[in-house]
Every structure is written in structure tokens, then in C-alpha cells.
Design brief:
The chain is of the alpha/beta class. The chain has three domains: about 50-110, Urease, subunit C, domain 1, CATH 2.30.40; about 125-240, Diaminopimelate Epimerase, Chain A, domain 1 (Roll), CATH 3.10.310; about 245-330, no CATH class. Helix content is about 35%, strand content about 20%. The protein contains eleven helices and 16 strands. The chain has helices spanning about 10-45, 85-90, 120-125, 135-150, 170-175, 200-205, 235-240, 245-265, 275-285, 300-310, 325-330; strands spanning about 50-55, 60, 70, 70-75, 80-85, 95-100, 105, 110-115, 125-130, 155-160, 185-190, 195, 215-220, 225-230, 265-270, 295. α8 packs across α9 (about 275-285). The N and C termini lie far apart (about 85 Å).
Length: about 350
């Protein structure tokens, strides 16, 4: 059989072409390998097992692209995944706490844009009479709070609203019947009046002739003596004698208050309370005990004083803000949502 022979030029060109293709393939493979190695180095470790997994929930994400899901995972106090029950369960291991929500609704944490959080601390660590309509229950709760307190401590708190019940203001005699031997001072629902017992009136040397700052008033009973209700600035007659809490006592009370806020779904606040609270907040942050995000008031004067407090460690600069700055301070911040 006669074999045909290719011209040597053609054969040579074919071999060269195949060699070029092989070189191109090799370059592509090397480039692909290099990319994969780079991705592997930059990807970091795989996500560790979640600390908490919540399943069978009605989760409202506030994300228009995915407004509702069944489950979510939390790691180091932050949401790390949302989705269906099976995919989120896959993120758990033997150390993960798993909660079956039983169909209950779960929402993102609430942000209180304007609160006097530290001012309300007395109602958390003392006695809270909010939304209770009858005086009998007030007195029962006051007696219970009295039993928890050490000797000599003041019983504070409040939230009482006489308009919910019989429509009559309470009296010092009401308090004396349940707590005769320690100072009791309880603010009303709007924080503009206080209800005190006879011991408090004695400590404050409050009489029918007591001088009161403008706007304040000592209410008198039909006998012409203090009834136990002090309006506005009159409350300072007693309050100024209040024992000064230690740093430890004050911060323990603040932490309890913050945890109470957590318990009702609040995860961030803008606090319009006294500037001295900045020092206590900073201490909780330093001790890694801060359970929610806190913003302080918005005026330029406040920011400057807060900075000085953080630098000096003092609780107060003792320089009252100007009237204009007080108005700025006591307002709801527009930038209420804290950064993650």
C-alpha cells in the first residue's frame, strides 16, 4: 500500500500548534490554581458553631428582601444567619443552645430614642407602682420592697397615679402604716410630685412654713400640716438629704436597670439623664458588662463635657449648661439607631 506523506512544513506546524495549546492550557491551570489558593487564603476559617439557634419562630427581619423567616443563629451576641429551620439547625453543635419558639413572633430589638433611663433607676431597684389602679396594692408592694432593704436605706421608686383609682391623693399616713421607720420617697407617674412618709418629712425638716423654690408647693391637710405630697421643687427639701450611693451601688443599680430594659425588648437607648451617668456607663463598658447600646444627649456642650469626664474620670463638671443647651439636651435624637 502506498502511504501518502504530509509535507514536512504542515506536520511541523501541527506539532507547534499542539505545543502552543499545551502551553496555554498549562498557563490557564496555573492561573486557576493561583486564584483558588488566593481565595483559600483570604476566605478565613469556616464559621464556628452558633452559640444560640432559635427555630420554629415567626421572625420579622425588617428586611424587604426577606421579611419573614423561620429561624436564626446567634454567635458572640450577634445575628450571623437567618433562614429555614433545617439550614439554621445545621449551624448548631453539641454546645449550641437551641430554642423552639413554638411559632411565637421574634422582632429586632427596640430603640428608645428619648429616655431618662438613669432617672428611672429607682423604680427598678426600689418599687414600681406604674399602672396599678388601687392604693391597697401600692401599699402591699411598698411593704414587700421595705422587707428587701437593709436597715437605714431609703425606699425609693414610684410611678403611682391616683387618677386610676379613687381619685384622691395618697397621704403620709398611708405610708406610715406600712413603713414608719425609714424614709420613703416615691415619685408620681409624671415625675413632678413626690409622696413621702412622716420620716421623710422629719429628715427634710418640712413644715407648713418651709420655703420652697418657685413652682414648688408643700400640700397641707385639713389640719394645716404637710399631707405627704410635695409638688415640683418642694421634693428637693427631702431629696437633698438622700445618702450618696457608692460607685459600686450606683453601677449595680444601673446594670439592673439596663437588664430590665433588655427584658422588655429594648437593645439601644438615647439617655437624656444626668451627665454623671457617662462615667458609670464607661465603667460598665470597661468591665464588659454593658448589655445594650447607649447614646447620650446631643448638645455640643454635652459632648464637650462628656469628653472631659471620660478624660478626667470625674462624675460631674459642675458647670450647668446654658438654657439653649438644656433645650437641645432634652430632645429626641434624629440619629437614634446606633451603629453595629
Amino acid at each position: 500500500m502506498r502511504m501518502s506523506r504530509r509535507p514536512s512544513g504542515i506536520a511541523s506546524a501541527g506539532l507547534q500548534s499542539r505545543g502552543i495549546m499545551k502551553n496555554k492550557d498549562l498557563k490557564k491551570n496555573l492561573l486557576l490554581t493561583s486564584c483558588l489558593m488566593t481565595l483559600a487564603m483570604n476566605a478565613g476559617p469556616a464559621m464556628a458553631a452558633a452559640d444560640l439557634v432559635v427555630v420554629n419562630a415567626d421572625v420579622r427581619t425588617v428586611d424587604p428582601a426577606k421579611p419573614k423567616v423561620q429561624a436564626f443563629a446567634v454567635e458572640d451576641g450577634k445575628f450571623v444567619a437567618i433562614g429555614g429551620n433545617d439550614e439554621i439547625k445545621a449551624l448548631a453543635d453539641s454546645s449550641t443552645s437551641i430554642i423552639d419558639a413554638g411559632g411565637k413572633t421574634v422582632t429586632p430589638g427596640f430603640i428608645d430614642g428619648h429616655t431618662h433611663l438613669t432617672s428611672g433607676m429607682d423604680m427598678v431597684v426600689g418599687v414600681d407602682l406604674s399602672y396599678i389602679p388601687d392604693k391597697k396594692t401600692w401599699l402591699e408592694k411598698i411593704k414587700e420592697a421595705d422587707a428587701r432593704l437593709p436597715k437605714g436605706a431609703w425606699l425609693t421608686g414610684g410611678g403611682w397615679d391616683y387618677t386610676l383609682g379613687e381619685g384622691k391623693l395618697p397621704t403620709k399616713e398611708d405610708l406610715d402604716a406600712v413603713v414608719p421607720d425609714r424614709v420613703v420617697i416615691l415619685r408620681d407617674i409624671d415625675f413632678h410630685s413626690v409622696w413621702v412618709n412622716s420620716k421623710a418629712l422629719e429628715v427634710g425638716d418640712v413644715t407648713a412654713k418651709s420655703e420652697v423654690k418657685e413652682g414648688g408647693q408643700v400640700l397641707l391637710n385639713d389640719k394645716g400640716v404637710p399631707s405627704g405630697i410635695l409638688l415640683e421643687a418642694a421634693g428637693e427639701l427631702v431629696e437633698k438629704h438622700r445618702p450618696v450611693a457608692t460607685d459600686a451601688e450606683r453601677r449595680a443599680g444601673l446594670l439592673e436597670t439596663l437588664k430590665f430594659a433588655n427584658s422588655v425588648g429594648i437593645t439601644a437607648v438615647n439617655d437624656m439623664s444626668d451627665l454623671g451617668a457617662v462615667h458609670d456607663y464607661a465603667a460598665l463598658v470597661a468591665d464588659r458588662k454593658m448589655p445594650l447600646r447607649v447614646g447620650t444627649d446631643s448638645s455640643k456642650a454635652t459632648r464637650k463635657r462628656s469628653l472631659r469626664l471620660s478624660q478626667t474620670g470625674r462624675r460631674s463638671t459642675r458647670s450647668p449648661p446654658k438654657a439653649a443647651n438644656r433645650r437641645k439636651r432634652d430632645r429626641c435624637l434624629n440619629s437614634a439607631t446606633p451603629s453595629r
